[in-house]
DNA sequence: CTGAAAGCGCTTACAG
DNA sequence: CTGAAAGCGCTTACAG
């Protein structure tokens, strides 16, 4: 096995020109050749253990066959299904997928350079919750590399696809309302998509039920955010009987904080998290969540990218099918009777 | 801004040859030139918004400046720090990092092709727990692309670095022994690294304390594995008073199963998980863990890769500094007195 | 049915 | 101080 064999070497061994070697490798041109020639070439290919040079191929074809997926907080378990969907759809189209975290995209990083440069990445799928710096975003927009955003954009200068965050929060809220809750809070996220869309869904559900929505408590992401969320709720006049948490890890953090504070979930406080992930099923009490079609989001995103690359951009939009779905577990229950009637007490 | 400007276009605008353009871009050759020329070229570069073509560069330089990191179960929270360490060390050496999951590496995938091919990936960091198929591994080994394994190898034909899994499990076990436990089980993982190393550490600690180790319960990974682990433990004659779990998510799953079964953690059963991740602090009872230097592992792995690429391979080995460390939380407590003396009861 | 040649965009000896 | 040229490994019209 010759480590670095090229088509030239194969051509030499098989006594043909590189054109023919390339032809048997790609099957695009020179399709007609004698079986004997083809066999000789295939033997030589196997003999040297040929692997193509992707850089040369990318340069010549003017496309790398690779797309990048960049998300904020790679460790977010909600991305598991998203990645799977993206991977499957990309493979089906002949693309390799590479992943990265938005924190790697800081100005001047080699990672960013690879995204901005041409030749090694054909397109980018980007999901962020507002923590990415504007400079990096501006860099991206200034490049010809297509970028599809995995979140709703009010100003659709960038193509985007998104799950229905608003509907998800609406469902979560309605689930609580059906349980008789009237004082429901909304906690978590930052000012920006997708948190804002979720808050809007919550407000809509509250308004529909003629209930007063509370202010959006921007506590950020992660378990710590849930802990802070409960602290803020307890520092108010009245502790609500239920809370919608913008993010599943925050919801788990809020659950822990409630346990530590001796607040009984779900009897005194019901909790719903957005995004159904494994951990929701594993904490105690188990967490009621809203399942969002993250896998379908990944598939749609790749389709959008594909359309974009072929010059036929699709309508940006929200994934309607499958719709978000409440997964009821043990963290939600009917509102405590004594509180819904009088609405006081800590 | 001309979307696809090349050095040729810049040279034309500045009235120089591409050699000089390349020189100001890279600063390697043609270092002496008139300030006026340099200024004119820099102006042209800014004017067209030049970005290099990475494929052309990679082809010419015969290196891509990108390393791939492939792990099993991307969603494992223990990787968060590992990725961070790898990223920092790689950036410092001028490499971009791309991530992928081992399940993407199945034969014939475009992702695998990109790893196997030359030109776009200079080297690979690979971590797996035995779930990767041998065929993919054989493919990798047959290529000249350097691979560093992020786990201990008994047969060091591949370079490797690893955290001290054995010491971690030993510490976990000793922590329980200090609490007076004598009947301690070991649950989780598969037959293979790093689970085996952890089991060995457990056995060593038990032997040192003249206690009888139990059999390794191979239940796999993830929360489900912990649930199965508890089921198996309960189906035995005697439920141990403590358990070391090979994997932190499995430990959380075991905690949930214990709660559901009405087994009091930590008063009836103490639980320790390997790997300190955020979730350990957020479940209730919070989970005692052993913290492993995953960030240092990432840094060392990149150093090893760097040495390998420069033809001076380092000694493979275990990261001794910082050493593993027990993070005591609420899932471990002194052994129940009535059980350590009589050792029966369910 | 097969080969010679151009060219993707870059870097780097080499010549002047 | 600057330019012309070769060549990295591939694909693809084009010619025969």
TrEMBL record, chains A, B:
Residues 5-61 form the HTH lacI-type domain. Transmembrane segments: none annotated. InterPro entries: HTH_LacI, LacI/GalR-like_sensor, Lambda_DNA-bd_dom_sf, Peripla_BP_I. This is LacI family transcriptional regulator. Keywords: DNA-binding, Transcription, Transcription regulation. CDD domains: HTH_LacI, PBP1_LacI_sugar_binding-like. The keyword DNA-binding applies. Residues 321-346 are annotated as: Disordered. One of its GO terms (molecular function) is transcription cis-regulatory region binding. It comes from the Bacteria. PROSITE patterns: HTH_LACI_2.
């Amino acid at each position: 096995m010759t480590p670095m064999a090229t088509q030239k070497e194969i051509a030499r061994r098989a006594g043909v020109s590189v054109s023919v070697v390339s032809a048997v490798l790609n099957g695009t041109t020179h399709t007609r050749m004698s079986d004997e020639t083809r066999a000789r070439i295939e033997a030589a290919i196997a003999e040297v253990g040929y692997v193509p040079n992707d850089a040369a191929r990318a340069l010549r074809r003017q496309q790398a066959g690779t797309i990048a997926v960049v998300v904020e907080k790679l460790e977010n378990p909600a991305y598991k299904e998203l990645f799977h969907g993206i991977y499957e759809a990309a493979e089906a189209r002949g693309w390799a997928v590479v992943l990265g975290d938005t924190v790697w995209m800081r100005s001047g990083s080699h990672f960013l350079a690879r995204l901005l440069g041409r030749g090694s990445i054909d397109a980018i799928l980007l999901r962020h919750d507002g923590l990415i710096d504007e400079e990096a975003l501006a860099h991206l927009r200034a490049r010809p590399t297509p970028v599809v955003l995995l979140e709703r954009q009010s100003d659709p200068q960038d193509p985007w696809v998104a799950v229905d965050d608003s509907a998800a929060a609406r469902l979560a809220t309605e689930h609580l309302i059906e349980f008789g809750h009237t004082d429901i809070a909304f906690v978590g996220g930052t000012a920006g998509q997708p948190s804002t869309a979720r808050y809007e869904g919550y407000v809509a559900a509250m308004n529909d039920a003629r209930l007063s929505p509370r202010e959006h408590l921007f506590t950020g992401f992660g378990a710590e955010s849930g802990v802070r969320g409960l602290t803020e709720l307890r520092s108010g006049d009245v502790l609500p009987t239920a809370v919608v948490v913008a993010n599943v890890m925050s919801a788990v953090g809020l659950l822990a904080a409630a346990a530590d504070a001796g607040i009984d979930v779900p009897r005194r406080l019901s909790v719903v998290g957005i995004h159904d992930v494994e951990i929701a099923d594993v904490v105690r009490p188990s967490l009621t969540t809203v399942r969002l079609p993250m896998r379908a989001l990944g598939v749609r995103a790749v389709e959008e990218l594909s359309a974009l690359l072929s010059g036929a951009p699709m309508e940006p939009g929200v994934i309607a099918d499958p719709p978000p779905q409440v997964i009821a577990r043990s963290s939600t229950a009917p509102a405590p009777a004594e509180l819904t009637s009088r609405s006081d007490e800590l």
